[in-house]
Design the sequence.
């Protein structure tokens, strides 16, 4: 594919999108790479951002110049801090892009006064509510703004650099009508396995997802060095900055069969058609999406959906909340309890209905 500098692909709830990103601003692109529509969209975005059209001159410097005490200045201090660098790389990128988007927003439509210009101690809950509500059509994005600002202000208070209170704590998150990532159904799992037989790289990818219950960043990085005494031993990518205890997961027979039948890589289990490890977890994500499409699965079938299907499977087979936490690496009982409650509800309802049928 023709390279397009400064573009980024990302998965938006199962739909692959592409954006052009420079100077802290993003513009969504349309069409498929290689088409005239995409080329025109790319050139327009490039001309607008590279020429800094409608972008204040000081903003083009990517937030490097900031008046002390402003929200922009506070963000810069956070980005430079050891605490921020301890976040996983993906988390850093997401929080940075969220804040850079906020800093470039006008305080009111048409105003030249941006949120980045606000003195931090003049910010109130009503300002955070405005930022949240501007994304109300996408509750997940709106809530991420609140969570990111909460994290920023919490760090600022702990660092004692002039922030008096966490105003983002006073703004509730929005209720979402969705339940997040779609968990694969039994029918979807069987359709994928029917299309991709044991011994193929596509099947090994699925088996690693389902039989470990891990996220895409971990599955992408698994390799022979992670196997010791019949177990998979690793530190979750998401929790590396939190002094975690490595997870130790027994390799189930189904997964072992898949590993034995597949020509795996020397450094990583999963490799591309040239026998090389996937360059990034995003390139692996796009490759896996193509394998899902080959199986006739809808676009909402994502790797994270297999993780949810794995948790559901274990809960339906009697796993406790603590057992689910041990497998999936969750730190809170709340997530695990949700799967156990759903499994218990189904079992209890079935027992009650059977009693009614006998009466």
Sequence:
């Amino acid at each position: 594919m023709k390279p397009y500098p400064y573009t980024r692909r990302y998965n938006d709830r199962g739909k692959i999108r592409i954006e052009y990103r420079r100077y802290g601003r993003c513009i969504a692109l349309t069409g498929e790479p290689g088409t005239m529509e995409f080329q025109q969209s790319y050139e327009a975005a490039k001309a607008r951002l590279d020429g800094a059209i409608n972008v204040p001159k000081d903003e083009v410097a990517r937030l490097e110049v900031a008046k002390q005490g402003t929200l922009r200045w506070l963000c810069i201090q956070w980005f430079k801090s050891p605490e921020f660098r301890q976040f996983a790389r993906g988390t850093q990128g997401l929080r940075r892009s969220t804040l850079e988007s906020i800093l470039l927003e006008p305080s009111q439509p048409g105003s030249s006064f941006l949120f980045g210009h606000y003195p931090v101690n003049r910010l109130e809950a009503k300002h955070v509510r405005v930022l949240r509500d501007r994304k109300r059509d996408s509750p997940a994005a709106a809530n991420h703004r609140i969570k990111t600002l909460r994290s920023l202000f919490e760090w600022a208070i702990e660092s004692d650099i002039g922030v008096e209170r966490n105003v983002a704590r006073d703004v509730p998150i929005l209720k979402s009508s969705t339940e997040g990532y779609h968990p694969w159904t039994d029918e979807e799992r069987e359709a994928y396995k029917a299309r991709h037989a044991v011994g193929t790289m596509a099947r090994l990818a699925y088996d690693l997802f389902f039989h470990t219950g891990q996220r895409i960043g971990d599955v992408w990085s698994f390799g022979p060095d992670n196997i010791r005494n019949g177990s998979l031993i690793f530190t979750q990518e998401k929790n590396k900055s939190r002094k975690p205890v490595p997870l130790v997961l027994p390799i189930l027979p189904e997964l072992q069969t898949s590993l034995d039948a597949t020509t795996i890589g020397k450094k990583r289990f999963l490799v591309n058609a040239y026998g090389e490890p996937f360059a990034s977890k995003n390139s692996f994500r796009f490759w896996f999406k193509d394998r899902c499409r080959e199986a006739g699965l809808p676009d909402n079938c994502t790797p994270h959906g297999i993780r949810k299907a794995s948790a559901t499977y274990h809960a339906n087979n009697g796993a406790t909340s603590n057992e689910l936490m041990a497998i999936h690496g969750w730190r809170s009982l709340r997530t695990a309890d949700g799967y156990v409650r759903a499994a218990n509800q189904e079992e209890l309802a079935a027992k009650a209905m059977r009693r009614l049928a006998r009466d």
